[in-house]
Write a structure and sequence with these properties.
Helix content is 29%, strand content 18%. It is α+β, with helices and mostly antiparallel strands and 137 residues long. It has one domain: 2-Layer Sandwich (HIT family, subunit A). The protein has a 5-stranded antiparallel sheet with strand order 1-2-3-5-4, with helices on one face. A hairpin with a 3-residue loop joins strand 1 and strand 2. It is globular and about 45 Å long.
C-alpha cells in the first residue's frame, strides 16, 4: 500500500486535530470539512478498501463509530449526520486508506448533499442467493 497522508498522520509526520485514539483506531477533524465537526475515522491497519480490512480492525471501528457520532453531535449541536465511506477511485475515494467520514448535517443545509438515482431490482432472489453463496452460507 502506498504511503498515504493518513499513514503519515499515523506515523506522526503530519499533525492532526485528534479527537479519539485507541490501539486500532484514530479519529481526527477533516482539514477540508463539509460542515463543522466533519470527522475522519481511520483504522491503524493499512488497508485501501473496506473489503481488505481485517475483522479485528473492522470490529474496532464498529465499536467506536457510534460513540464518535454522539460526541460530534453533542459538540456541534447538530441533530443529523451522514456516515460516508468510499472504496476505489470510481466510488470517489481520494485517499487510499480505509476511512469513514462523520459529517454533521445542519438545518441550514450545510453538510453532505447526495444525488441518488434508484433503479429497479430486476432479479432480487437470484442476486441475494449469489451474494449469500459468496459468503459461504
Amino acid at each position: 500500500m502506498a504511503d498515504t497522508i493518513f499513514q503519515k498522520i499515523l506515523n506522526g509526520e503530519i499533525p492532526c486535530h485528534k479527537v479519539y485514539e485507541d490501539d486500532h483506531v484514530l479519529a481526527f477533524l477533516d482539514i477540508n470539512p463539509v460542515s463543522q465537526g466533519h470527522t475522519l475515522v481511520i483504522p491503524k491497519e493499512p488497508a485501501e478498501t473496506l473489503d481488505q480490512l481485517s475483522d479485528e480492525s473492522s470490529a474496532a471501528i464498529g465499536r467506536v463509530l457510534p460513540r464518535l457520532c454522539r460526541a460530534v453531535l453533542k459538540a456541534t449541536g447538530a441533530q443529523h449526520f451522514n456516515i460516508l465511506q468510499n472504496n476505489g477511485a470510481p466510488a470517489h475515494q481520494a485517499v487510499f486508506h480505509v476511512h469513514f467520514h462523520i459529517i454533521p448535517k445542519e438545518e441550514s443545509g450545510a453538510g453532505l448533499g447526495i444525488g441518488w438515482k434508484p433503479s429497479d431490482l430486476s432479479s432480487g432472489a437470484d442476486l441475494a442467493r449469489s451474494i449469500s453463496t459468496c459468503l459461504g452460507n
